[in-house]
Amino acid sequence: MSGPAEPGRIPSSRRLRDLGLINWVAAKLMARTVRAPEMHLFTTLGQHKRLLWFWMPYSGALLRGRLSRADAELVILRVGHVRGCEYELQHHRRMGRAAGLDAHTQAAIFAWPQTPDGAATLSARQLALLRATDEFVNDRTLSNATWQQLAGHLDQRQLIEFCLLASQYDGLAATIITLDIPLDNPR
Questions:
Q1: pLDDT by residue for the chain (187 residues), tens digit each?
Q2: Domain count, the chain
Q3: DSSP labels for 10-36?
Q4: Domain span at residue 43?
Q5: Residue 114 CB contacts under 8 Å (≥ 6 apart), including other chains
Q6: What residues contact residue 98 under an 8 Å CB cut-off, 6+ apart?
Q7: Domain boundary among 46, 63, 80
């Protein structure tokens, strides 16, 4: 991932002319929300004006769907971890805390399955979501055994939503990494 001074493959832009009014306002509001001078995801993707208008509601709907916020954030954190997408992790660590995933739980999410004591911190539902997320991202599908385990915790609509959520954030991580979008709050 590029540092704060490096522009990425498609340099972000804060200019109204490049973003259009709606994307410019959205980028300003999102930067304020994350307490950063710029939200590079929006100032980069916003340059494709029309596409961002369609992507934002879809992405937002997945964050407010049938899965609990804690479940959704667990899946997103795991996707970001498996993909090595620090940008996604930087935003969703905070959002995960707000959804009830404290630092200890997040550490267990990142350490699973290598750290056996992490499994004691996580519920059977959380472990099923982790296993399914890893399999979905790595294999692009779920085995019958993993599907059955996940189906023991989620209803049909939640199962559909899990697939869309995992694929959305996997695709977003791939886009962020490919475009080399810089961190909003570099360390």
A1: 444 446 789 999 999 999 999 999 999 999 999 889 999 999 999 999 899 989 999 999 999 999 999 999 999 999 999 999 999 999 999 999 999 999 999 999 999 988 765 667 899 999 999 999 999 999 999 999 999 999 999 999 999 999 999 999 999 999 999 999 999 988 7
A2: 2
A3: TT----HHHHHHHHHHHHHHHHHHTTS
A4: 16-63
A5: none
A6: 69
A7: 63
